[in-house]
Amino acid sequence: MVLNSKLLIVIIPVVLFLGIGVSMVSGLWDSGDKTPSRYQDNEQNPYDPQSISGSYSFTSISDYFSIPVSVLYEAFSISDTFDPNEFKAKNLGSIYEELEIEIGTESVQAFVALYNGLPYELVDVYLPENAVSLILDYNSTLTSDQKDYLELHSIKVVTLDPSKVSLSEEEETGTEFTINGPMTIQEVLDAGMTKAEFETIVKTSVSFTNETVKDFCIKNGLSFSEIKIALQDAINK
User: Fold this and answer.
1) Of 119, 144, 146, 237, most Cβ neighbours within 10 A?
2) pLDDT at 173 over 80
């Protein structure tokens, strides 16, 4: 049987719609966050927490890393009035009173890694006191260095009234340039900074601009959090 073009125009969208609908019901269709990468790109290895980006909802983080949403919410003092399908890692800082130290996506990465006992290089990443307590209670395999790190990188947070916190995209999208863990030096330069200006801030020369700012700071013994703020201030001035 030969189908004419007019009939195909009707049939194809219907088939696609039904296919997606069935997949969503069966759990095969993933319309959420991109699947995080695994350690050494091996399906037998666990997911790498450093793959968590600001767009990850707390439901996705819970699903991928097998940590109950209730634990994630307790760790970061998140009100249960927030929908975990809507609350994302990048929303974290908006629920706290102003802090000198950033609690954001990298803090979520660090918590997930330490809570689950996964490899993660900790450099200038701070966690709320609740998160540190949960890690210490749950993970009995922490090394003495990790325990010392947590003690020195624990911070008290004070949450805002949830009714006054907006998670709308309009609120999230600002004009200011911000730097996150996966951002490369080249991306910073592209945002409006010369290589010479970058080198002035980091007080050392830059050979390769395709490495991340975070890795560059680690390699050169610099404080990522301090350099990040200095770079952002220079670009946003």
Assistant:
1) 146
2) no
